Amino acid sequence: MKPETDSDHAALQGRWAIVKAELAGEAMPRLVAEKTEIELSAGTYVVRFDGQIADRGTYLLGATRVHRGLTLIGVEGPNAGRTIPAIYQLVGDRLRVCYGIDGQAPDSFVTTPESSLYLVTYRRKTP
Question: Could you report how far apart the first and last alpha carbons of the chain are, in Å?
């Protein structure tokens, strides 16, 4: 996997709405998903729920042997002080991210009841 580039950063920037999500194999309720979005911009992230900031921090891009990597560093909110490794795939206006909530980097885009993985598919929001 090649290292991240400025174009990788640029491609991820923007506001992303959740299409679907699951935590440890359990689907996120549709009404919660519809009210949640993430904004990525210049190395920072903001998660909003129903328009209110719920979580904020910084992110770094990298790569694993197979996938592109994303690491969130929480600054404010429930993830303050936490480092959450993730892998991602970006195709067109769809972004799929698998977060290792337990601090362990995921190696696939699959969750199970035994895992501490949060898998989210986002759709880019129009400006």
Answer: 31
Flag whether 125 is in a domain: no
Number of structural domains found in the chain: 1
Domain holding 15, by residue range, is: 6-118
On whether residue 127 sits in a domain, the answer given is no
| Each residue's pLDDT tens digit, 55-69 | 999 999 998 778 999
Residue 70, C-beta contacts closer than 8 angstroms, at least 6 positions apart: 12, 59, 60, 61, 62, 85, 86, 87, 88, 97
**Does residue 29 form part of some domain?**
yes
pLDDT digits 0-9 by tens, 4-45? 556 777 899 999 999 999 999 999 999 999 999 999 998 999
Alpha helices in 13-94 (DSSP H): 30-34
